[in-house]
Amino acid sequence: MFIRSVYTFILVAIISVVIGIPLERSPDLAINSGISLIKRDSYPNCTNQSSPFYQSSYCATSTIVTITCASAGNSNLSFILRQDCLPNENCIDYVDQQNVSRGMCADFKNIRKWNNKDSGSRTCSENEAYDTGDGKDLILGLTTYATTNNPIRVQMLEAFMSGNSLGRLFNQYNYTKIIKNYDGNSTIKYCFTAGTTKKITALAAAFG
Ligand SMILES: *[C@@H]1O[C@H](CO)[C@@H](O)[C@H](O)[C@H]1NC(C)=O
Ligand SMILES: *[C@@H]1O[C@H](CO)[C@@H](O)[C@H](O)[C@H]1NC(C)=O
Ligand SMILES: *[C@@H]1O[C@H](CO)[C@@H](O)[C@H](O)[C@H]1NC(C)=O
Ligand SMILES: *[C@@H]1O[C@H](CO)[C@@H](O)[C@H](O)[C@H]1NC(C)=O
Ligand SMILES: *[C@@H]1O[C@H](CO)[C@@H](O)[C@H](O)[C@H]1NC(C)=O
Ligand SMILES: *[C@@H]1O[C@H](CO)[C@@H](O)[C@H](O)[C@H]1NC(C)=O
């Protein structure tokens, strides 16, 4: 694990030098699936003073987010750090509108959570609207985890809006769908087919 982190760090540093990753973006908010609140979750923080700029992140486990932070002196250099989510949070991956990978710790209150029943059948979250008001862009994020809390690929991932499929993904452990101008009352549900009899837990949230 340590060797892999170092290797990733070196790799990212090299890639960053070549490509040049843009600096900090304003972090997204996770949107409450409940009645009225838009709830603020903890953002991944670049705590290293010499590398203070958030670039991207992904979920290492359901409770740990791995963050890439850019150096203050040279934005082409990156520093990787791991951060625990708060005790009332889990990590969900998605890719934002700028195509940046984000693993975000979101409050349990904002997360829909469910398990597979068996290998072959599709299981889904609740089918509820997000109370965002009219005309906001929503980003749906879904990540599947094994009982070890590590992300695990599943046979199929899919989301639905008002009963219509938003597209399927095969043999992945995360799913992102961007909904432009969400109307604030179309129902959203998330589904997956495990492709294994092992217990898989899916976590989904909407970000805006
Ligand atoms: C990041 O920093 C903000 C403000 O300082 C804080 O509210 C938040 O909880 C921190 N997030 C994590 C994951 O530590
Ligand atoms: C902070 O980041 C720099 C690289 O930008 C690294 O050399 C240093 O070890 C880091 N400090 C800590 C406390 O992790
Ligand atoms: C970062 O990379 C870009 C593109 O390769 C280059 O133009 C720029 O000078 C680099 N910046 C620094 C501070 O090295
Ligand atoms: C997003 O990034 C991935 C790799 O990071 C790339 O394969 C893909 O083509 C990009 N998509 C868009 C729309 O830029
Ligand atoms: C989603 O999963 C793919 C592997 O299938 C991985 O490369 C990518 O980094 C993941 N996205 C995020 C945001 O973690
Ligand atoms: C919800 O649906 C109604 C009727 O279809 C529509 O008038 C309204 O603009 C929609 N959006 C919100 C946020 O209520």
Characterize the structure shown.
The chain has 208 residues and is mostly beta strands. It folds into two domains: 102 residues, no CATH class; 99 residues, Sandwich (Jelly Rolls). The chain is 9% helix and 46% strand. The protein is built from one helix and 14 strands. The strands form four sheets. Strands 1, 7, 9, 12 and 14 form a five-stranded antiparallel sheet that branches. It has a four-stranded antiparallel sheet with strand order 8-13-10-11, with no helix packed on it. A three-stranded antiparallel sheet has the order 2-3-4, with helices on one face. A hairpin with a 5-residue loop joins β5 and β6. The longest helix has 18 residues. It is globular and about 50 Å long. It starts with a helix and ends with a strand. The structure holds 2-acetamido-2-deoxy-beta-D-glucopyranose (6 copies). One 2-acetamido-2-deoxy-beta-D-glucopyranose binds next to loops. Keywords: Membrane, Transmembrane, Transmembrane helix.
List the helices and strands and how they pair.
Layout: H1 2-19, E1 30-31, E2 53-59, E3 64-70, E4 78-84, E5 89-95, E6 101-107, E7 112-115, E8 122-124, E9 136-146, E10 154-161, E11 164-172, E12 174-182, E13 188-193, E14 200-207
Antiparallel strand pairs: 1-14, 2-3, 3-4, 5-6, 7-14, 8-13, 9-12, 9-14, 10-11, 10-13
The structure holds 2-acetamido-2-deoxy-beta-D-glucopyranose (6 copies).
Transmembrane segments: 6-23
Keywords: Membrane, Transmembrane, Transmembrane helix
